Description:
- By secondary structure, the chain is α+β, with helices and mostly antiparallel strands.
- Helix content is 17%, strand content 32%.
- The chain contains eight helices and 21 strands.
- The longest helix is centred in the N-terminal third of the chain and has 15 residues.
- The protein starts with a helix and ends in a 9-residue tail after the last strand.
Amino acid sequence: MQKKKRLYAAALAVLTAVSCTPGASAEDAGDTAEYVYRYELAFEGTSGTSSTFALSVLGTASDGGAAPVLHTGAAALQAARLNAADGDGALLSFTPAAGIEVRALDGKAGIERGTPEDAEGKGSYAGFVWSAAQDADLAALADGGRLPLGTLTVPVGKADASMITLLPWTQTKTGWAQYGRLAASGADKEALAQLIGANWRIENGIEGDPHVGCYQGYYASDDGQRAVDIGCGWQSLVVRSYRPQSELTLELYRDGQTALAAKAVVPAHTGQTGRVSDAVRFESLDYYSAGGSKYDKLPDGAYRLVLKKTSHAAVAVTGVTAANGSIFPQLTGQTITLPCGDLNGDDRVKLADRALLTARGRYGARRGTAAYQTYEAYDLDGDGQIGQRDLAILTAPGNYGAEGRTLALGETGGTT
């Protein structure tokens, strides 16, 4: 029992302090465990005077066996359509299950609640570090690889599970402050990666965009703590993009063929601005043939999926399948980000696009003017004006210099 207590304490310290590191780094453990174990947050929803969702973490092994139970981890869940300015009743809240203890992301008591940073006062999130109580029996708490974490409460009628997503660590108040202090002080990248990596594995390593990555969970092994990525099991595929006023288009091609086999559309986010996340539920979409005829059911087979959106470079995924009513199960829990800023349609975000956006007669155009109507595709954040915010989106890391790409199934990895 004393060894178990030490392991729990060490793992919790890893998640809340830079001075401690796990037995294997978050990146090393993530790369290793990705092919062996998969961990996802899962929801079971109920309704009452408020909307409540039972939150748990589910572990599965690639060989069909049991995955080790995570005894600690971090998460921040957001509902973008909530408005924290409406008061405390409009915020997400979280109540831990029996045997589970929670702390705020900065290590203080309670949970972290509020509006995501850089979200212009919109949305609500709840962030926390969770751990099994030191005297808890993990085997008894977990049911078939599913560890109950607690209950997430949402104001009634304001959101359902499809609207709830993981909030990037750097958009939490704790992550924003830590990242800002290090960036301002000129700290080296290794120190930055060590601090961020305890809670959040940056996709593509320390050279990648710190806003894109995966939250971390930990399990005990013979050589210490092992860190693994935690995904979202309640969503089939999350597509992140800008231009909320534009619909997301899904083009389907039969494996090895160039002729369009089917097409589907995810509606625009009317009234929103900035970055948006679409929880794509493939089974609920309407699919149409190249000739415009609606399919009663998407034909079974292997497909290449191409994701397209106005002013974005396209992303294609190969090796996805539809069979027996199950559509693209390989993408469950995955996240793909579309590069934003392709204004000339060459599937790249380059200097030429920046020149188009900042050209005289376009930059500064507002909704209701002839110039805006002509160049509306340049309004990347959907706020009704072509200006500084759109330029910031186009030139942001992850957008500027990016090109359309094709991902083999195994490359989507958690977050792309």
